[in-house]
Each structure stands twice: as C-alpha cells, then as structure tokens.
Amino acid sequence: MNALINALHNELQISESSTIIEKLFHIQTQSRVTCCLCKTEDTTDERTTFLPLPLPLPKLHPQQKCLLLEDLLSFFFEEDTLDGDYYCQKFDTMTQAKQKTSLRHPLPRVIIIQLKRFTFDDSNNKIHTFVRYPLQNLNIGKYLAQTSTNDTFYNLIAISVHTGSSQSGGHYTTYAKNNDQSEWYLFNDSFLEPVEKKIQDKQLLTKHAYVLVYQKTEIS
Ligand SMILES: [Zn+2]
To answer: Which positions fall inside the USP domain (predicted)?
Structure first.
C-alpha cells in the first residue's frame, strides 16, 4: 500500500505542485534530536504515508492481554534515547542524544496506522495481542509538535484484517465504511457483505486488525 501511494504521488507530482495523494495521505512529522550534553536541539521535517506502531512482544509481557491504540501511539511519539553515540559539535566529543517524533500541520485527511504484528525475526511469529481502537473520535492532538485542539479528531473508515499465524500464510479481509450511507461492509475475496448494525461495534473491534484507516471528522 505504501509503495502504491508513493508511486502515485511521484507520478502526479510531475504536473502538480501539491498532489491529491499529499493532501489525503501524507503525514507530516518533525524529528527532534536533543544532545544530552549541551541540550542543543536539531529538528528535521519528514513525511510518511503510514504510522507503523510496534507491539510489545508477548514473551516479554505475558500478562498483557489487551493494548490500547492510544498507548501504542504515545509510545511511538515518546522521546527515546538514540542508538549509538552522538557527536556533540559544541564540546567536540561523543555523547548520547534523545530523539522525539511529533506530528506537524497540515494534518492529512486520512491517517493509515499499521499494527506491527509480524516480528520479522527468525521465528517469523505473529503477535496476536488484542488492540482496542476507537471507532470514532481518535484524537491525535497530543502528538503534534505544537499543541492544537482543532481538526485533530479522526473516525475509523477501514480495517485490514489478517487471520493466520505468520505473514507467509493466512488470509486478508477488509472492513470498509460507505460514508454516504454510514454502513460497513466486509470484503472477503470476491464476496461482499454488509455488517449488521446491531453487532457492528463488536464485529469491527477484531483482534485480527492489522491496518487501521482513519479519516478526519470534518469531511465524514
Ligand atoms: Zn551537544
């Protein structure tokens, strides 16, 4: 999905300065590196098309049966110590540095979140921990570099679901919302079926969720 979005953006950029892909999907971020010795800050503006959120390994956290999406986001945007040494120009010596990623305006209309369920180590195991995510009003305001309370709410519009125990096997399905009718549908290979309204919330909150797609509330 990421490769497709980037390819479309590059193609459209030839004729447009600001592409539809940019407005829809580009998440503007700021990376701030702070020298632990002289406290000098170095900020770099970056962009991404999705947020890959790591999940704690169950073998290290066996008691953790349920995670909150908001906690995974807070962890992702938390300040952390950079791996390896950092060169401090002021004191001309090697030291350590802290790094923090924040979101920047303008926020995209759509935010794609990947729950990193695959470990990509020798075991190639999948992390099955249930992640509870809001169907409505995900507030990403606190992850902004400059605090803002406007336009920071998102509603869920699609869920990519993976069932199976590893990335090399299993099956993908998708739940997607028709915003005009406010109805959810399940896409399963060539089958399409509406999600019953009375069991909708339960069915949409699945432990097999792999990718979550959120849309800004102002246009839903
Ligand atoms: Zn320094």
So the answer is: 1-217
Domain parsing of the chain, residue ranges? 2-219
Q: pLDDT tens-digit profile of 89-118?
A: 999 999 999 999 999 999 999 999 999 998
**CA of residue 34 to ligand 1 center, whole Å:** 8
Question: Distance, CA 83 to ligand 1 centroid (Å)?
Answer: 16
Helix, strand, or coil (residue 67): strand
- Cα of 29 vs centre of ligand 1, distance in Å, is 23
User: 3-class SS at 198?
Assistant: helix
CA–centroid distance, residue 87 to ligand 1 (Å): 7
φ, ψ (nearest 5 deg) of residue 52: -85, 105
pLDDT in tens, 43-63: 999 999 999 999 988 777 777
Distance 97 CA to ligand 1 centre (A): 8
Could you give the angle at the alpha carbon of 25 between the alpha carbons of 162 and 69, nearest 5°?
50
In CATH, which of 3.40.50.300, 3.30.530.20, 3.40.1670.10, 3.90.70.10 is domain 2-219? 3.90.70.10
